[in-house]
Amino acid sequence: RREDTVSSCCPGPLGRGNGVSPRRYLLYASGDFVKVHSVNTEETLGLLCGHADLVTGIQLNPHNHMQVYSSSLDGTIKLWDFMDGIPIKTDFFLWSDTFQLVSVKLTKGAGQDLEGKELSVVLDGVGASSKQIAFGREDSYVVSVKDVDLQVYFFKRKLLNRFSLSTAKTKGGDNRFSCVVCHPTEDCIATGHADGKIRLWRNFHHKKGYTYSSLHWHHDTVMDLAYSLEGTRLLSGGVESVLVQWHNESSCQKDFLPRLGSPIECISMSSDGVLCCTLHTDNRISIINSNLRFSRSIQGLIKSRDVKTGLVVDPRTKALVLNGEPGHLQFYSLQSDQQLFSLDIVQRQYIHQAGLKQSDLVKVAFSARGTWLATVEESEEVADPELQLKLWFYTEETQSFALNTRINTPHDNHITDMCFRDMDELGDDSLILVTTGRDCVFKVWVMVGDSDPEGNVSWSCDFVGSYHNYQATNCCFSEDGSLLAVSFEETVTVWDSLTWDLKCTFCHPPGNIRNICFGRQTCSKYLIGATDYGFLCCWNLLTCALEWNAHLNVVVLQPDPLSEHIAAVSWLSKESSLFVFKPSEPWPVYIQRNLCKEKILLAAFVPRDEPETISSEKYLWLRKSQLFFLTDTQCRLFSLGFILNFGNLKGDRIVTLRFYLHFFKLAVEESLPVTPFSVLLGKHRRQQAQEDTDLGKPVVHNKQEQASPAVKELLHTPAHVLPSASFLCTIFINSLLISKENKSAEEVADEVEMESEKAEDDSDEEDVTAMEQEDTSHIELLGEITCKLSKSQEKELRKIRKMDYSWISAF
Amino acid sequence: MGEFEVHRVRFFGLVPAGVRCLACHPRGSRLALARTDGAVEVYNFAANYFQEKVIPGHEARSVESLCWAAGDRLFGAGLGGDITEYDLSGLSAARGLDGGGGPIWSMVANSSGTQLAIGCEDGSVKIFQVVPGGIQFERNLDRRKGRVLCLSWHPSDTHIVAGSIDFFRVIDVASGQTVQRIMVNHHVEKAKHECVVWAIALLSSGTVVSADSFGRVQFWDWEQGTLAESHTVSTSAVLSLAVSQKEDSMIVGTSTGATYHLQLLPVRLGGLEKRWVRTKPFQFHSHDVRAVAHSPTALISGGLDAQLVIRPLMEKVQKKNYEAVLRKFTFPHRRLVSCARKARLLLFQFSQYLELWRLGSTEETGKDGEVLPLCRMPEHLVQLKSKGPEHIYCSCVSPCGTWLGYSTASRFQLYRVRCDEDGVSLRKVPKVPKLLPPAYQLQFSADSQILFVASARGSVHVFQLLEPGGCKHLHTLRPPSGCSEAVYLLAPSADGHWLAAVSGDWAIHIYNLKCFKVGLGVTPQPQGTRDGGLSMHCPPGSHHCIPGAGLGWLWCGNGGQRQSWRFWFGMGVWESCQPGPGGSHQCMSPPAASLRGAQL
To answer: Superkingdom, according to UniProt (chain B) (predicted)?
Structure first.
């Protein structure tokens, strides 16, 4: 019999209970996932995915250290074999809405999804955080702290003792509890408090005879505590970024590990006591030796207070670039999910003090090949922003950016946008930087050679343009660099980049222009603009006329640099939706409604290393690039969340996971061995799906038809020109062999597959019928452009598919 | 209510002497305290920790250690090398006996109180027998080099542990031999400094608890000579240590003013294994805590900042009442200021001198609570130094401001004060009648004609003051039944007919001054409580006294009738102490005249 307790609902960014198992695996809850990190090799070994919501706590199975329990906001407790990443079983529970400590009896059965029924409340009124609950020695009692109350419940004696501290805040004291841990071998409870005190409680089975002593070093809240294996050492951490080790409960003997970089949120001890790890507020885990020596750190995406720079992709490393530590620019590799490096831009000591106005990085732009980096920093003063424009040159020798030019006060007011002229073929001579400012001008900066013999270059202002004294809000260059579009409030102006003549203006009143971008490749004659009045407009640069417009409240407009696709994210009635379109066509290529409940703030296309082979037409636009989103999650802290393609990752460091998952799924489905049975199964599923959906959009189902280029070819070739079956056989068999590699992945993604499939079905229902649903606004629908496939097209598609499958089954 | 002038007197620069040592009575009813100036005080726990007796200090008499022995006898020993017994009824140091080993650093009595052990500068430990009427040297125990700073008897009286510099040793009392010597300065970085064992305790289990100048409290098994536990409670020296009688709790005092509570707690709930754990720290003092004591229900500490702090143990207190209150004694419980109301003079009593001040005055009037500007600043008129090493017992200035008297242990002096334009002149009154000193209280009558001198054995001497500067012994008032205790408090009535005197056994006698007879005798023990310190006020026709804390008594003596009320200050309720018709106490109001007196 085993009892496991999970607080019923606990919104916290990162679950505690990241334990290091004896064989040096570090497990941590990260968003919806549990990650397995090898301490020895410093790599992420596995990913336990299957929870549909935030993982709130993880706990190693005390009877089997290769297994871990995880609890999640989705109301389940899962047991995993974390080495293989296999969910062993899942228990569903129906939780009440209040915070209670309940004891649940986990079912014995070996099935996958079991509903737990035996649920008894142990304690009422417990804190929301798992740091506020601890089990005592040999699980004989449980302790819960909340506000100024400490509750101890003895399981055997069924005795509840409650101790209260005074609420008075005398002499700067604040008795509220922040966390609790229990001594592993003795009956001693250590509690952390909001004023930085640690209290050690003893004799707490007596209502009156209880006693406590206190240790005080921290000046602010004790964020977490941990006992060593034998209980001789107590670790504490807080906002000071110092790990304090207390020996033998003595306030005189203590050791410090200072300068850990950022406030400590959680402390966890490995089960053999050799290592401990601390979780920091900037989304980093530090691994620390038992002799209090810093060992190494696992750095995820740094949570910045505010991502002012937007999401920028470094053309050189394909890393995502955004605000990191204050005043720093972080380069974050999405492929490896780790930080590549951090560039100090502001180069000033950041002082952690509330209310202090300090400079921070607000804009970043890379030149096309990534050799130049332009940054804008401004202080938080509203009246006098103290702007600085810095230009950095990438030096191969040092493999980093070196400061080339610093321009003080490039504009008289805040800089709103900045872009380089992307002209790969013309080389550095054509390199132009354009900045737009709220001082109603845009400025063109060019490189000038210095007179000194070393041939150094520096940047200086070449041209200042303005339009009717409107504030300049956005700028962008066309793909060939010949045209510059600058938006001035309601108007978009197009300038010749050679002569700096105003070529034409576009306007779609009412409403200011929020975003603009040029079309690419085949669509380079189009200019796309989104207004804050809820319109997406496409102007033809050749005819200087409005090509089409749609009524859509676009928040983010992001062109794919490698294709003609443009992604637009709308925000309406508390949900974000994604629309991908080509400027040349007035209907979207892809629609994902209800992408997430949070507002998406930023998006970026990140080029793939190699184009993916995606058969599904629906996802063809993702062939060369991946799309990433940044949402503002309404956590207690401001935390970044990335949404990858589909579904939201509210968590912290999970960046690529959802995305991979989705593609796992695609891959899995495509690589199903095409046996008569599987085809039958596929058919069955398809039929079911078709029955479910009224307007059954068949696009999705096409993905099942091909597993590899071989099969694809096979299917696309008319039957009468196909070679003989004996010839085709080897190719076909080979394709099956390749697909086998993904088999284990299939198992991993089993759980997810179901869910995402469901999600997809939902999206299918939504249909491609379009943007006209944004009717809640006060403007009448102007653009009648919808993007329905004609009935005949639909029919044709269906026919093709049907024919194909019958053909395979015949095979 | 009349019009009042409130003076904020901020020129009484009394510096109380620090607390040097504490001794809890074995039965836990009294606490003896010695200050650095040699004064010894006795506090009564039962009477709300009231300061019952004060024996003023003496320049040549330092007290390093106090102990209760043979029942209620109090002994003190100090760096003068003498062992002194204190006469608690006569409030004087009675007899001294030279210890014979140089300055005495510590003295402890055995569990039965029949023997005293002293630790001397020369490293010897000597045993004295307590005999009726004094003490007698019994024998020397093994002498080793190094002053003996602290001593502790084993509860079974078989062994004594003696703490010294860098080591402590255990002595077998029967043989007088040192059976174990343990160095305490091992394995410490500071080993180049000497490690002073400031306090030590020998528990019945054979554990020795030592507190040393490295800030450690260490637990030793003396038979094995091994260190069982070591608690570094402070970065500064641990100066004092006291263990409860049950040996499950102890208090240590450090040189930073912090005291720490250590408790013997089970390691696991319900388990047998127990361990000493440092639990609560207290920072009541600003300076060194030289003395701590552990009564059954409270932790007591006294520091060089002159504070005595009594912190009740909450788990031992049954009800949350007055018993559970943290007490801090900073101010003396005695009258050190006397006021000449008509002459607007204040007399301040210091340990060895007196100061006479004239109050400032103002010509303006103002509303309630308003601070008025002074037109004349307070003026220091004269400082009168007492000769000799003795400290002053009591002092008084007459209401008219022309007479001033004080008393030390051996002398009683009366002065005539003359204030004129040239300044102040003091003239000693010659030929003061010889009395048995000391005087415990001096009191002038309201018309400044008569001086009352409280004396030993319950007697009050009455002097008539004569112009221009003389005095005459009129009468000696004695209680009819006799009394062994001295009179502590005096209060004459305003009309000069009555005098109330309170002696150390808490009997109140009211004398008729016309015929020098006892008018009324009350013993305020209606319910067996011994409520404490009294200051008396006698309005016409009624008498009342207000004790130090919590409870006030009021007696009305109208035409031989006697009624008493008791006033609970906290509750504001008067309660009659005479049983009502139903045998119960009645809550009723005393006569209005009496209340007026009480309000004054």
So the answer is: Eukaryota
Residues of B in contact with A249 (CB under 8 A): 277-278
State which residue of chain A sits closest to B266, comparing Cα positions. Answer: A203
> Residues A324, A329, A334, A335: is their CA dihedral positive or negative?
negative
ipTM score? 0.74
- Among A18-22, A296-300, B149-153, B408-412, name the one with the lowest average pLDDT: A18-22
What pLDDT score was predicted for residue B583? 34
* C-alpha to C-alpha distances, B260 to B215, B250, B297, B299, nearest whole angstrom: 11, 8, 16, 10
Picking from B261, B268, B278, the nearest residue to A137 by CB comes out as B268
Asked whether A372 and A335 are in contact (CB, 8 A), the reply is no
Q: Contact A202/B314, CB-based, under 8 Å?
A: no
Q: Considering only CB atoms, which chain A residues are within 8 Å of B189?
A: none
Q: How far is residue B516's CA from residue A46's CA, in Å, rounded to a whole number?
A: 105
Going A616 to A617 to A618 to A619, the CA torsion angle's sign is positive
Across-strand partners of B207? Answer: B221
Per CB-CB distance under 8 Å, the chain B contacts of A204 are 269
Q: What is the pLDDT of residues A611-667, one digit of tens each?
A: 777 666 777 777 777 777 777 653 222 222 233 332 223 333 223 333 222 222 222
* Backbone φ, ψ for residue A165 (5° rounding): -100, 165
Q: Do B279 and A212 touch (CB under 8 A)?
A: yes
Cβ B232–A252 below 8 Å, yes or no?
yes
Distance, CA of B262 to CA of A760 (rounded, Å): 66
Instruction: Give dist(CA B208, CA B200) in Å, integer.
Output: 7
Q: Do A186 and B268 touch (CB under 8 A)?
A: yes
**Inter-chain CB proximity A249 and B277 less than 8 Å:** yes
Q: Which residues of A255-275 are buried (b: 16+ CB within 10 A; e: fewer)?
A: eebeebbbbbbbbbbbbebeb
- Model confidence pLDDT, tens digit, residues A390-417: 999 998 888 889 998 899 999 988 899 9
What is the reported pTM? 0.70
- Interchain CB distance below 8 Å, B232 and A253: yes
Identify the CA nearest to B416 among candidates B424, B406, B404. Answer: B404
Task: Tell me which residue of B51, B115, B53, B54 sits closest to B83, measured CA to CA.
Answer: B115
Q: How confident is residue B529, by pLDDT bands cut at 50, 70 and 90? A: very low
Distances (CA, A) of A167 to A152, A170, A200, B12: 19, 9, 19, 39
Residues 6 or more apart from A656 whose CB is under 8 A from it? Answer: A334, A335, A337, A644
Residue of A330, A419, A327 whose CA lies nearest to A379: A327
* Contacts for A111-118: CB closer than 8 Å, 24+ residues apart: A112/A87, A113/A89, A114/A89, A114/A90, A115/A91, A116/A77, A116/A91, A116/A92
In angstroms, the CA A32 to CA A128 distance is 18
C-alpha Rg value of chain A to the nearest Å = 30
Query: Closest-CA residue in chain B for A202?
Result: B265
For residue A590, the model assigns a pLDDT of 80
- Residue pair B318/B324 in contact by the 8 Å Cβ criterion: no
DSSP, collapsed to helix, strand or coil, labels residue B53 as: strand
Longest dimension (CA), chain A: 94
